[in-house]
Amino acid sequence: MSTYWNDKNSPMNPISAPDFIPMEQMRELQLYRLQGVVKHCYDNVELFRTRLDEKGLKPEDIKVLDDIAKLPFSVKTDLRNHYPYGLFASSLKDIVRLHASSGTTGKPIVVGYTDEDMKVWTNVMVRSLAACGVSSEDIVQNAYGYGLFTGGLGVHCGAEALGATVIPISGGNTSKQIMLLKDFCSTVITVTPSYFLHVIEVASEMGISIKDLPLRVGIFGAEPWTFEMRERIEKEAGIKAYDIYGLSEIIGPGVGVECSAQNGLHIFEDHFYPEIIDPDTGEVLPDGSEGELVLTTLTKQAIPMIRYRTRDITTIMTEKCDCGRTIRRIKKISTRSDDMLIIRGVNVFPSQIEAALLAVEGTLPHYMIYLTTEHDMDAVEVKVEINSAQFGDTVSAIEKLKAAITNSIKSIVGVSVKVTLVEPKTIERSQGKAKRVIDQRNK
Amino acid sequence: MKMNQLSLFIENKPEHLDRICADLKKYGINIITLSLADTKDFGILRLIVDDWEKAKVSLESEGHIVNVTEVLAVEASHEAGGLSGVLDVIAGTGINIEYMYAFPGNPTTHTAALVFRFDDPEKALALLKEAGLSGVDSVSLFENK
């Protein structure tokens, strides 16, 4: 039995206490921990030591929190280049868990956890779930993939430690997901937003409305999703949809999460120190400015990351949150600089196309973006599934719909695309992270 | 005069029409008449079948999206000027034909039947009735049984 406080709305829940501590106290804790992790890295990670030496820096040079800006950045390729254990700061004897990212190109990225790291991960996951109003009374259907991916086991450990009832169903197997939602009376689902859309769709074909089930909360992450998508999900499933943020390089899910205010994601900054930088110059930008999120793991032992460039574009929000948490928030991330497409010289994010699509009445969020080269120019085709609600019996009705989607994309995204309507259920449904872009342009 | 028509969205690609027809065959549904509107990318298949309710349920169970539209089926004499006579009734009223197609003619009764989708079906129905035109109310007349 869990001993954690059961009142899901109480800021007095002891596990969530660090979310509410005074800011000065937090800064003091962060400095103390930053000094510790920099020394730990300098002593144990050759790459970091070399980089610091090149700059003529010593761990003792970190005297105030702002001194973090003196430290070198780390990037994803550092992990690739030192595959598998080159960046580990603890001996393998002390490492109790390994995870790896699905490397679509080349080698995967390997991360390790000491026993202490596992406690931190569990702690931030418990605080994440608590922030979404989940308590020991909830039944959590965990539809993130179990395995090397951090999503499944990360959520699992947190939900169990919170004292909730965990259903470790993993991703996929849609009709079973629906059966368990119904029969096990799941109150919370943790899943990628694109897969949950598929679950809603299949349920409705089976004559089941998710709205009528006990499900009340969805915690969605592992891929960027838009506000428009949230509206759809909340309306169609009759649940509250919260965004959770994390990346395996930092710890996995539980780096940040939305709260009842659903206005930005609180970063658990007692463990992960956030900065926003200009992605071109690397210069630190003041809170409130938009730029690339950089995170430093303040307590991680096995594979600490100093100033890790996430490639995620967001803003640190400065206003006090309605929920009372003092830890800072970042704006919901709908763009990753990695996902950015340059189409005929215009920067385009797939999420903008999604938002433009959902802005048209009655459209479904099932789409695929195809990029090709035609006459030495970028050509874009967006395939969109047609649904029964919008399908008229005349050519003009369908042409009108097509024109509405084309215009919406043109005005929101700023590029002209060819919209092709396709038959229902012909676009592949994701069981995990959605693939939205097929780039076949000549390189 | 009112009749239920099924319409289906199909991509303009080889074998897409056949997929629908194969499913109709599977459930033993006979097509009485049809029209296929085509554009470069897609088409709309409109069907009048012997049992539209069964056809709708069957096609949906196979994953097709089926819309039901009420159309007007009007009888016309199978001779020169037959269609013109029907069209004269609505000429000058501002009613527009969104689309139309025909049933096979009946050589024994010397009649043909036409399927209309008007932009104002109620007004069109009233006018056609007033003009004394007879409608087709049952597809069974056209079944080869």
Highlighted features:
heterodimer, A: 443 residues, alpha/beta, Rossmann fold, GMP Synthetase, Chain A, domain 3, 2 domains, 13-stranded mixed beta sheet, 4-stranded mixed beta sheet, 10 helices, 21 strands, 24% strand, disordered N terminus, B: 145 residues, alpha+beta, VC0802-like, 6-stranded antiparallel beta sheet, 6 strands, 36% strand, globular
Topology:
The complex is a heterodimer of chains A (443) and B (145).
Chain A: H1 23-44, H2 46-54, H3 76-81, E1 95-100, E2 110-114, H4 115-131, E3 139-142, H5 150-162, E4 165-167, H6 174-183, E5 188-191, H7 193-205, E6 217-220, H8 227-237, E7 240-247, E8 252-258, E9 265-267, E10 272-277, E11 284-285, E12 290-297, E13 308-317, E14 329-330, E15 335-336, E16 341-343, E17 346-348, H9 350-358, E18 367-374, E19 377-385, H10 395-413, E20 418-422, E21 437-439
Parallel strand pairs in A: 3-4, 3-5, 5-6, 6-7, 18-21, 19-20
Antiparallel strand pairs in A: 1-2, 7-8, 8-9, 9-14, 10-11, 10-12, 12-13, 13-14, 13-15, 16-17, 18-19
Chain B: E1 2-11, H1 16-26, E2 31-38, E3 42-49, H2 52-61, E4 66-77, H3 82-90, E5 97-102, E6 111-118, H4 121-130
Antiparallel strand pairs in B: 1-3, 1-4, 2-3, 4-6, 5-6
What report would you give on this structure?
The complex is a heterodimer of chains A (443) and B (145). Chain A has two domains: 14-22 and 110-338, ANL, N-terminal domain (Rossmann fold), CATH 3.40.50; 340-439, GMP Synthetase, Chain A, domain 3 (2-Layer Sandwich). Chain A is 29% helix and 24% strand. Chain A has helices spanning 23-44, 46-54, 76-81, 115-131, 150-162, 174-183, 193-205, 227-237, 350-358, 395-413, and strands at residues 95-100, 110-114, 139-142, 165-167, 188-191, 217-220, 240-247, 252-258, 265-267, 272-277, 284-285, 290-297, 308-317, 329-330, 335-336, 341-343, 346-348, 367-374, 377-385, 418-422, 437-439. In chain A, helix 9 crosses helix 10 (395-413). Residues 1-6 of chain A have low confidence and may be disordered. Chain B is an alpha+beta fold and 145 residues long. Chain B has a single domain, classed as VC0802-like. Chain B is 28% helix and 36% strand. Chain B has helices at 16-26, 52-61, 82-90, 121-130, and strands at 2-11, 31-38, 42-49, 66-77, 97-102, 111-118. The longest helix of chain B has 11 residues, at 16-26. Chain B is globular and about 45 Å long. At the A-B interface, helix 10 and strand 20 of A face strand 1, strand 3 and strand 4 of B.
